[in-house]
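Notes from hallway chat w/ T.B., transcribed later so I don't forget. T.B. wanted the structure written out for a chain they're using in a teaching module, and asked if we could keep both sequence and C-alpha cells in one place. Agreed to drop them here.
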Amino acid sequence: MHRTLIALAATTALAAPAFAQDKDIVDTAVDAGSFTTLVAAVQAAGLVDTLKGEGPFTVFAPTDEAFAALPAGTVEDLLKPENKDQLVSILTYHVVPGKVMSTDLTDDMSATTVQGSDVTIDLDNGVMVEDATVVTPDIAASNGVIHVIDKVIMPAS
C-alpha cells in the first residue's frame, strides 16, 4: 500500500509537490522510500529533531544505492554508537543552512555546510556537489529543500 501511494503521488503531477510541502525534510525522506539508510543514519546520529526543526535547510540526500556503493561494512561501522561523531560529521556535511533551490546555484560556487566545511557546486556536466551528481533537484519540504544525489560525499578528514 505504501508503494502504491508513492506511485500515485509520482504519477499525479500536482499531487507530488503539494504532498511534499506539507511534510518536513525527515518525513519527506521517509515517504520517498529511497532513503531508508539515510533516515536510519539520521536517527543513529540523533539529528531527527534538528532536521524536523524550523530550518530552513538544504539537504543533499544520498539514495540507498549511494550508501550501498560505499565499501562493504562502512555503513554498519558508522551506525555503531562509538562512531556517532564521525556519522554526525558526514551527515551534516550534506546539509547547508537556508533553502537553496537549483535556480539559486552558480557554477563553481561554494557553500558552507552545517558540518563547517565547504562544498563546491559544479554546473559543467549537470549539477554536481563535490563528486556527486544531483539526480533529482528541488524536492520541497515544509522546512527546506532536498536535492537527491547519487553518491555519499565525505568531508576531508
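Follow-up for T.B.: Strands lie at 57-62, 95-97, 109-112, 118-122, 128-129, 132-141, 144-149. Might be a good example for the class.
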